[in-house]
Amino acid sequence: MALSNSYETPAPGFNFDNAARNAALEGLFDGGQTPKPLKTGTTIAGVVFKDGVVLGADTRATSSEVVADKMCAKIHFISPNIYCCGAGTAADTEKTTDLLSSNLTIFSLNSGRNPRVVMAVNILQDMLYRYHGQIGANLILGGVDCTGNHLYTVGPYGSVNKVPYLSMGSGDLAALGILEDGFKPDLELEPAKELVRAAIHAGIMSDLGSGSNIDICVITKQGVDYIRPYQESQYKHNRTMKYKYGPGTTPVLTEKVVPLKLEVVQETVQQMETA
Amino acid sequence: MLEETAPEWLSEEVKTGTTIIAIEFNGGVVLGSDSRVSAGASVVNRVMNKLSPLHDKIYCALSGSAADAQTIAEIVNYQLDVHSTEIGEDPQVRSAATLVRNISYKYKEELSAHLIVAGWDRRGGGQVFATLNGLLTRQPFAVGGSGSLYVYGFVDAEYHRGMSRKESQQFVVNTLSLAMNRDGSSGGVAYIVTIDEHGTEEKVILGNQLPTFFDQ
After folding, report:
1. For chain A, how many structural domains are there in total?
2. 3-state secondary structure at position B9
3. Which end of chain A is more exposed for a tag (fewer CB within 10 A), N or C?
4. Pairing relationship of beta strands A165-168 and A44-49 according to DSSP bridges
5. Where does the record place the Proteasome beta subunit C-terminal domain (chain A) (predicted)?
6. pLDDT tens sequence across A203-254
7. Is a pLDDT exceeding 50 seen at residue B187?
8. A60, pLDDT greater than 60
9. Residue A109 falls inside a structural domain
């Protein structure tokens, strides 16, 4: 069946391409210790309010116990009216959201309209289900379309949940407590932003895998307000000195020049056409 | 020293650890389910509706792996749509159940989901089909999911043919309530769907409105 949004029709059935590659990779490393993928160890949350959807995320990316990126962007652009927060393996969430964004752009160009959130969810679910959990992406999709304001979550195995508020990632239980307590249907913009901020903040305080700043993204019919950062970490360190070194800092003791011997092996001349 | 930045349940498969039930009554069927979706020890969604429409008068109840069950329901929904357009009338419940059974049987090793299909059609009236592991059997009532084990005794003793619509709905609600109280993987609210020749009625019964029994 030709889909209006894919470049190629996906093959039917499960996709086990990566299983063979993973087995081969394990053989390459001694002792079968493949390098651990970079996880975002995250707190992400979303809330549906009266006029749209608010998405929030922390900005810490960890590689085991080291913070690999202090200002990582976890809220990804999908289409002008849909944004997606990603938790799980950083590379998987990046690539999956990129792929989804490209597919929806093709759809927009083909049909001349903004995509619906449910379409993004269906494409994601299709793809993640076909890979049978091998793609470690926990995604929160939020957006506004002609049918209303929607918030969905898609799990790595392809399960979909449609809810008015949710959180994902390693800090999600802390954030969910705040959301369960403070959520009301049809919130106004400022209380909704404050609720999401408080939820992410709870995740940052209670979870080691989440930290640094808080990003907020507000999507309404009028447009998108991507506030990065919405709140800066209070533990931000100010550099006490500059690390730039001027020329002459390192003294030169001796200098030795050795010309390389090159011989011409082959010479081809191609005339340029300027007509 | 940090051992693991992410809790295990994040990468665990999401299961619906469920109680689902479908029964036939005079002139239709009633389907019921709880609303808890778990991943390991964590509840991922406490308000999920596990009664998924396959057609106007045919519904299925999902249990097992959330992703597998949702996908099967969506695929069969599409196939049934095509089928009903081809034959030019509403499909039979048996056809819907057969389509679900075909997928469950063909991908037996890879899938771990059990769907109960129930609905109303012109020829057979209300019908309930179980499709566990790829079999297809018509039964007067069917229960499924992890919570069903706790209520087999209750349904076996209390079910009788010729119940009225109201009696059947009450029977389903009672069964769900008992199962949700005993099974750790079932809980939340109860969703009820009643299908008969006049139409389909969906209802939600909130936690505090569920019937209570002897020890509550």
Report:
1. 1
2. helix
3. C
4. antiparallel
5. 239-269
6. 999 988 888 899 999 999 999 999 988 888 877 777 788 888 888 888 889 9
7. yes
8. yes
9. yes
Domain B20-206 has CATH 3.60.20.10: yes
At A69, is the secondary structure helix, strand, or coil?
Answer: strand
Amino acid at B189: V
Q: Under a CB-based contact definition with an 8 Å cutoff, are residues B21 and A185 in contact? A: no
Reading the block at residue A122, the tokens are 């269906």
Using one digit for the tens of pLDDT, what is the confidence trace for B95-125? Answer: 999 999 999 999 988 888 899 999 999 999 9
Is A34 tagged catalytic? no
Range of the domain at A189: 39-231
Burial of A153 (0-12, 13-18, 19+ CB in 10 A): buried
Count contacts between A and B (CB, < 8 Å).
64
Instruction: Pick the residue from chain B with its C-alpha nearest to A208.
Output: B5
pTM: 0.76
Smallest CA–CA distance from A36 into chain B, residue: B4
Nearest chain B Cα distance for residue A19, angstroms: 15
Type of residue numbered B108: K
Q: How far apart are CA B187 and CA B47, in angstroms?
A: 9
Alpha helices in chain A (DSSP H): 17-28, 90-111, 117-130, 172-182, 189-206
- Which tokens is B93 given? 């419940």
